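Example 3.2
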Amino acid sequence: MTLGLLTLIWGSAALVAYIYGENYLVLISLGILAGLLLLPWIADYLSPQMAFSMPWIVILLFSGFSISEIHRPIGFLAHAAIFSSLVVYLLVTGIVGAVEPIKIKKIQFDQEFSSVKSGTILFVLLGIAAFNVIYSGYIPLVNILMGASADYLSFGVKSIYGFFNAFANMVGLTFFYLYLTSKKRRYLFFYVAVIIIFLFLVSRQNILSLLVESFVVYSLLRARVKMRKIILMFTILMVCFGALGSLRSGDIKILAKVTPQYMWLPDSVVWGYSYSFFNVLNLDNLTNDPAVPYHDAQSLDPLMPSFLRTKREEDRSFLEDDKFTVSSFIFPIYKDGGLPFTLLLVAIVALVNGLVYRRCISNPSMRNILIYAVLYFCALLSFFTNFWFYLPVIAQLPMILALTWGQNKSQEEADAGAVPVDRVII
């Protein structure tokens, strides 16, 4: 409830600050950001509240700096959509988390894959990847390094490649879980192999999702990580993300039209700015259109395989710049049903995320941990797009359920004899 009330106060103050001057919004965002990082009882980075709220706070911080020539103030309706979504999400998860969970127990789950089964799964992944490479006629990373054009957006057979992304991500996450629980290095080898496959396919989204989900699994299984280590890992990840982005798309400072006074910023920071603030600009264009909402259920399209989707012709583009198509989770939902429909979805996902997180604490089974890792990623990257309705990511959930089917009883029996332990910070 603390985060919910804090955000309610912050949202009200920020809206008032917007009326009198945007620079106040920067100061308020900095204050809240510092408070969330410094107060240990609030800064639980594994909580669904932190996963959802922190990126949006950083975005609102970015809104106070004219890094790009395209920069402009954000309108009242876009701010209202963001703040009200934050308040609803944090209040719902706060209510769910108010119920005291059972004591965390030591995990004694001994489910493993045999060497043959692990190798077979990896062989299937390589086979599907090879099929898409043969169909496309190139390997994206090799083409980029050779200076040739790599049209990564049209790579592979659409539905098959989408299935591959979800399946490979789930398999990589499972291998990482099994490595942590069994200490057998073959699982680490298979896990790294999945990351290498994603690298050759220049799939930044899959690399990012697998690394974030793996971090959540590690934190739930082994130990919470100190904030300074998280900042260091985040910095390294952003540098790598920026380098891969520059290889794939070109100089981000030119693409984002960075102003001369901010040319000193590292590419990784400009990439972070571009993938956060531009989506708010796009949202602002949408909320200012009197024809919205359209009530056409278009937000559900990403949940269907590409061959089942109906091709839709857009009457107009809401993009501030055609090179930045990011839109946040709010954009498609607001476009379908306006603010009420957006807040309804926010309440539902907040309830689910809060309940699954509580189950991870009370019953840290393989199923609960892997499912929460996926939901955590969806909440953390909600500023980028609606991953809750994005099939290559959310399809991991039924795959995890299928993989762990019938294992809950074994987990509960193991937990029944487990000795309660305290969480440690490394």
